[in-house]
Amino acid sequence: MARHRVCGENDIPVGGMKAGQAGNETIVVFRLDDGFYSTQNQCTHLFASLHKGKIVEGGQVECPHHRTRFDIRTGQVVCWANHPPGIQVLNFLLAKKALKTYPVVIESGQVFVEV
Q1: CB count in 10 Å sphere of residue 29
Q2: What does the alpha-carbon distance between residue 56 and residue 63 come to, in Å, rounded to a whole number?
Q3: How many Å apart are CA 93 and CA 102, to the nearest integer?
Q4: Residue 53 CA, distance from chain mean position
Q5: Considering the chain, what is the average pLDDT of its residues?
Q6: Closest CA to 113 of 47, 103, 79
Q7: Which secondary structure element, helix H or strand E, spans residue 88, and what is its range?
Q8: Lowest mean per-residue pLDDT among 28-32, 53-57, 65-69
Q9: Phi then psi dihedrals of residue 89, to 5 deg
Q10: In 3D, which of 98, 57, 65 has the Cα closest to residue 83?
Q11: Own/partner pairs for 68-74, CB < 8 Å, 24+ apart?
Q12: Could you tell me which residue, 45 or 15, shows the higher pLDDT?
């Protein structure tokens, strides 16, 4: 694994997120009450940018397009696409798929993601 600097520790407030590049991967780093986490930036439903979504209760990120929710800590699907009404028809063609997650290391006030 290679370590890639994303930003300074203070660049992401608690409850915030920041998109970045880690090698060839486009990632997003989240800062929750209990630490920093990183996942791929693309939603596994229809590939929207998760950094344009929002962090919701329980440490989840909600995709801005179809409200798919993922657990930020594990990448697991919490709620598959459910908006707008009728999107569920498309869900029969698209299997639920978890996000890739990446280790985050904080060193000397800098945020690194290992890919």
Answers
A1: 25
A2: 10
A3: 27
A4: 9
A5: 92
A6: 103
A7: helix 87-91
A8: 65-69
A9: -60, -45
A10: 65
A11: 68/43, 68/44, 70/39, 70/43, 70/98, 70/99, 72/30, 72/32, 72/37, 72/39, 73/32, 73/37, 73/101, 74/98, 74/101
A12: 15
The Cα–Cα gap between 36 and 14 comes to: 9
Q: What is the DSSP string of 19-59?
A: EEEETTEEEEEEEETTEEEEEESB-TTT--BGGGSEEETTT
Question: Each residue of 57-111: pLDDT tens digit?
Answer: 889 999 998 889 999 999 999 998 766 666 666 666 667 899 999 999 999 999 9
Instruction: Identify the structural domains of the chain with CATH numbers, from first to last.
Output: 3-114 (2.102.10.10)
Cα maximum dimension of the chain: 48
Q: What angle do CA 39, 87, 40 make, to 5 degrees?
A: 10
Q: Give the separation between CA 82 and CA 51, rounded to whole angstroms.
A: 19
| Residue 113 to residues 10, 15, 34, 78, 88, Cα–Cα distance (Å) | 15, 18, 17, 24, 34
